[in-house]
Amino acid sequence: MPPPKDVVKIAIQMVGAIPQLIELQQTKPLAAVLKDVCDAWSLPNAEHYALQYADGRQTYITESNRREIKNGSILRLTTSPDQEAERLYSGIQSKNVDVKTDSLKKLASLSQDVTFAQEFISRNGLKQIYSIVEEGNDTGEMLAHTLKAFTELMEHDFVSWENLSTVFIKKIMSFVNMNAVDASIQQLSLSILENMVPTSRLLFELVKKEVTLDRLLTHLQVTNAELQLKAMALLIALLLTATDAERRDMMDYLREKNIRQFIHKNIIHSSEPLGDEMAHYLYVLQSVSLNLCEHRMRTSMDPYSQEQRELLQSLRQTAFELESEAPAGNFSTERRRSLCAKEFRKLGFMNNSNPAEDLRRAPPGLLALDNMVYFSRNTPNAYSRFVLENSSREDKHECPFARSSIQLTLILCEILHVGEPCSETAQAFYPMFFGQDHFFEELFCICIQLVNKTWKEMRATQEDFDKVMQVVRDQITRTLALKPTSLELFKTRVNALNYSEILKLRQTERLHQEETLAVPVLELRERLKPELLELIRQQRLLHLCEGTLFRKISSRRRQDKLWYCRLSPNHKVLHYGDVEEGVESPPIESLTEKIPVADMKMLLVGKECPHTKEKSSGKQNKDVLELAFSIVHDVEEYCLNFVAPTRYEFCLWTDGLNVLLGKEMTSERTQTDLDVLLSMELKLRLLDLENISIPDTPPPIPKPPSNLNFCYDFSHAEQ
Questions:
Q1: Residues of the chain with CATH 1.25.10.10
Q2: CA neighbor of 193 nearest in space, from 218, 179, 217, 210
Q3: Do the bridges between strand 548-553 and strand 74-79 make them parallel or antiparallel, or are there none, so unpaired?
Q4: Cα–Cα nearest to 236, from 267, 271, 198
Q5: Spatial CA neighbour of 424 closest among 293, 294, 547, 555
Q6: How many CB atoms lie within 10 A of CB 276?
Q7: Where do the ELMO domain residues begin and end (predicted)?
Q8: Which strands sit side by side in the sheet containing 558-567, from one edge to the other?
Q9: pLDDT above 70 coverage of the chain, percent
Q10: Whole-number Cα distances in Å, 417 to 293, 413, 668
Q11: Which of left, alpha, beta for 298 (phi over 0: left; psi -120 to 50: alpha)?
């Protein structure tokens, strides 16, 4: 008979004593439980002791988290958090260097526990840490433990970053700016500053002034990957906290220092594989850089702006330079205006008498004008060839340069997500972005020539404009999906994907769709579905058994802390626990926390998850909502909260958990996988019917014959 719900069987250890096996009554006060345990070992003063997990993070057991204790858990009797906090508070003030160092080391370890952290902070422990940093000249092991302890204590949000003294902050910044200092101290200092920057405008300005971009670039050029990562994290924090004007100035300075080329050569193409954290920071850097175009994209052209009118006129003058060299005195004002209107019409403006009207639509706004001017100035030969070539075509077949440029700019903004906020979890960046300055403009130059090429291949007329732009969008999207490493490679691939190739791809996709819509084929699909769904279920469970590395995300920043979760091979227990950076697939024995599948009640996703509700105040990024899920186990108040690293992992985990709960798989990935498997199975089954049309209805069954005399009579044969 199973034990009652409020009773768990556990083991309690103590150094130098025989372990106790007890049945823990969850309704019994924790103080009374401790009294019983201490009495069994004849220990006085039970209030000076506490229980904590023997493995993993060794969290203290409190009234608030005791319900998380599972059957078979191993606990340890240890000094209570208040006693330990008091002891370490005295230890870090010791004159003995060894005692002080050991106390700080223990403090750095215990500060991860919220109960201990609360006790230590309540004793004004942070003040002692401040004084060690501010007054000490040590830059070795003792300082490293001090900074680690400070980082862990601040992680619990009991104290505001704004309460830090200027002396302490400047000392931390000095560690970043020093040359002869241990790398671990610089890493911790960079991490502290990264946490500090988003919390206050004052702190942002202080850090920005003291830790220069040049210094961060120096840290980015080291071979120590962890130090490189922390430097990039602080750089991203500064960029995200800056105002638009400050961000633009910072990006301009970084461009002068060739940061893109450095990242392209030494980070993206380094011998070491790119980690998830660095991939995220490169995505953010790409997004921040592209979003500098947002202001121009959302600004309509002002017909009264002298500067904008001159840019517009420069397009006409560059294209028709020879024709414009005729003496102005030879033409009347009306004749000159008529000539300009004719030239603007040749340029492809729809409103040739007032071309500024074409640029009033925002987006793409002035960004389209900037792209056209960049194309005309940086590739004048290609620009003149485009315009003059189309000027000599028949009116119906000319490709309108200006109209195409405006629409192409809008397409590129949509594909590259210009003006959209950065995701907190995304890692998808384009390697070629970091190999080229003026990436957006250079990409436009390639794609506008692609428009002209595709226009000619389609033998398009003005009525086909939207069709041509749809094909161009398809060409760009399909090529970007291949993740080309340089713009030259992008140019080669996108030009190879000509109109006839696009037609073949579309026709293949359409034929595949038509094949699968025949009535007999649909019936066969339905028969195959249960078997293939079972195959998908098995794959999902296998993925859960292999496990996944999850990252802890707080309301302040993207965390460095990792934890791993995997399903036991018998599909009965979910194992999880904290792991260190670089651990690929920890053995199941090292994951100390467990949830029996039988105790799982339901799966929550998105806004229903408790960890998304907690952070709903302020700007909650939609990407986190899309990747969040929680397992409710035992009683409904207790949840194991996840934020998947990718949408793919989210789909596989939510499907797998639904299978364990005996529910339907609901993710979009299930439908995609099912479609792929059905398509492959159907093609194999219908291989013998190639080029044979399948009727919508089965052929009629013939009537039975009038007699069965044609049957062979075996009785005569036996005689």
A1: 88-271
A2: 210
A3: unpaired
A4: 198
A5: 555
A6: 16
A7: 307-480
A8: 548-553, 558-567, 573-579, 593-596
A9: 91
A10: 11, 6, 23
A11: alpha
Pairing, β 548-553 against β 20-25: unpaired
Q: What are the backbone dihedrals phi and psi of residue 483, each rounded to the nearest 5 degrees, phi first?
A: 55, 60
Cα angle: 260, vertex 261, 264; to 5 degrees? 85
For position 696, what pLDDT does the model report?
67
> What CATH number labels 530-671?
2.30.29.30
What backbone phi and psi angles, to 5 degrees, belong to 44?
-80, 170
Q: Token pair of 640, please?
A: 């194991």
pLDDT at 625: 81
Q: What is the dihedral of CA 234, 240, 244, 248, to 10 degrees?
A: 40
d(CA 246, CA 201): 13
- Tell me which residue has tokens 């999850």: 550
Cβ proximity of 311 and 338 under 8 Å: no
Burial 81-119 (b: 16+ CB within 10 A, else e): bbbbbbebbebbeeeeeeebbbbbbbbbbbbbbbbbbeb
- Give CA–CA dist 556/191, Å, rounded: 12
- CATH 3.10.20.90 domain extents, the chain: 7-79
> What is the reported pTM?
0.77
Q: Is the dihedral of CA 519, 525, 528, 530 positive or negative?
A: negative
> Do the beta carbons of residue 346 and residue 402 sit within 8 Å?
no
Classify domain 88-271 at the CATH topology level: Leucine-rich Repeat Variant (1.25.10)
Q: What is the CATH number of domain 7-79?
A: 3.10.20.90
On the question of pLDDT at 358 being above 50, the answer is: yes
Question: At residue 477, does pLDDT exceed 60?
Answer: yes
429-446 residue pLDDT tens: 999 999 888 899 999 999
Tokens 């490679």 appear where? Answer: 489
Q: What angle do CA 71, 77, 82 make, to 5 degrees?
A: 120
Q: Which two tokens stand for residue 626?
A: 């899309």
